[in-house]
Each structure stands twice: as C-alpha cells, then as structure tokens.
Amino acid sequence: MLKRGQFSQLSSESSVHLDIRPMQARDRDSVVDRLSRKPLENLLLIDAASRVGEVPSIGDPAVQVLLAEYEDRLVGVAALQPIVTVEFGISEAVLAALLPHLGAVSSGLLKTRLVIADSVWPLLESSGRRKVLDRIEQGYAVSGRDLRPYEVPGGGHLRSASAEDLPDLVDAARSSLKEEDRRDPFDGNPYAFRGWVASRMPRARVIDFEGELCFVGYADVQLESGWLLQGVYTPGPRRRSGFAAAGVSDLCRCAFSSGASHVQLAVVQGNKPAEELYRKLGFRETEQFRTILFR
Question: Are 251 and 260 in contact (CB under 8 A)?
Fold first, then answer.
C-alpha cells in the first residue's frame, strides 16, 4: 500500500487512477480486516461493511459501501448508507476520488471527523441538500479494564426491553429528540417512527422503578471490535439519581462479557452532565465528530 505522502505527491499527476467500486459481500473479510486495525476509529464503518449484502430491515436503506483501489490494492473505504462516513486516516488523494460519490447521496446522516465533514458537506449543500441537524459531538470510549461500574439504585429493575415497553420507548425517543430541538417525528409518520423504535428494541436495556421507565439505552453496534451505545436517555425528574450510570454500566458489562474490545458513544458538545457521567464511569475522550442529518 502506498504511504500517505506518496498519494499526496501522486494526486496532482494525471497518470494516477484510483478505481472506485461498490463493495460486494465477497469483499467482507478483507475490508473488515483492514478497518479492524483501528477498531475504535472505524467502528461505524466496520459495522456497515459487516452488513453488506444483507437484506435490510423494513424501512431501513440497504447498506452501501465504496472501495477505493489503486492497482488492485485496497486503499480506502467509505460508506454511503446507512451513514456517510470515511475510513480513519484516509489520504487526501483517496478522499478526493471519493468526494463526488459522497456528495451525491440524496438524504441521510453524515457522521465523520470534522475535517472530513467540512469537505463533504459543501458538496452536498451545493447539490441542494439541506440540514435538519448539524452538531459537533465528542467521542468517548472505555475498556473493560478501565470501567468503573455503578449498581442500580435500590428498587430499580434492570432488564432487556420487552414489547410492553414500546409506548414508553417511543415517548423517550420523542422526548430526547425534543431536547435536541429536532422535529417531533409524530408530525410526519408516527407509525413509521413506532416501527423504527420497535426494530431497535432487541438492542435496548431499560431500568424501571416504581412502575416508571427511568433509563433506556441502545447498543446499536455489537461487534467484537467494539460496541456503540446510542439513545441513552433518562427522564428529567429521574436524572442524577444513578439510573443512567447503572444502565450504561450494565451495557458495558454486557459488551465486555461478549468479548468486545471497547465500548464507545458520543456526547453533543456542551452537554456537561453527560460528559461528567461518562468520565465518572471511566470513559476517556477520543475524536470529535460532526454529525449532519440532511435531506
């Protein structure tokens, strides 16, 4: 594989040609092996590559991953669906070759390092895409060795989500979006939103206390390379009572008992209570990301 400096030098020469092609199921092992050299930085892309060729869930887009090759050697990986993201450490030349493809996505979620997002978004915007959400997020990660677990407060019941929890999970998701100043999904298609929440239920853990759901969290990526937690939410009146610390601790224990190398998540920049919570549990800061929901 050519080094970054070589690509930077060659990128200005017309003789250089990078082939860009869709990833196929037969490429899975080699692509995942490449990305797994940096599992912390590439977890979202590893998850996407691992699912290439699978039949998507109802309402979800088919996974689309692009491969960049130089003289039949793999030199870069990027995803178009379900998120737009790029391999960590990609060279300038490879990124330049991928940009037209990344900038052609009609709608979706861009989630990548700040410098990459600042290159991709202007292309999307110039093609008529409009932001629904644009924010900076701070990544956090923890290993099994560094985790400082918390127990469930007395009277709390920690368990996997069940079908009976669906109304509460929908309410929690709506409340979380509202706190982010995002549009209420019930203003669009409430049935589709319920279906989306229901599809995530097998990945959810909850805590109930006195008949009330006091914590919900989703392990949306569950790989040996790492777990990604999303949708962590505790209702306002129950915050700072230990429910979130216990719930996240439990998800981490599940990850490490399954053999995961680490657990990661992201916090919206400026959310000090969440930052304090994760540091208390042993999480450390990693990369900053820019997340843009567009259509």
Answer: no
Please, are residues 249 and 150 in contact by the beta-carbon 8 Å criterion? Answer: yes
Please list, in sequence order, all residues whose beta carbon lies within 8 angstroms of the beta carbon of residue 236, skipping any fewer than 6 positions away: none
**In this structure, are residues 186 and 7 in contact, taking their beta carbons and an 8 Å threshold?**
no
Give the tens place of pLDDT for each residue, 205-228.
999 999 999 999 999 999 999 999
The mean per-residue pLDDT over the stretch 230-247 comes to 96
pLDDT band at 188 (very low <50, low <70, confident <90, very high): confident
pTM over 0.85: yes
Q: What CA–CA distance (Å, rounded) separates 276 from 254?
A: 22
Model confidence band, residue 14 (pLDDT cutoffs 50, 70, 90): very low
Q: Are strands 131-142 and 263-268 parallel, antiparallel or unpaired?
A: antiparallel
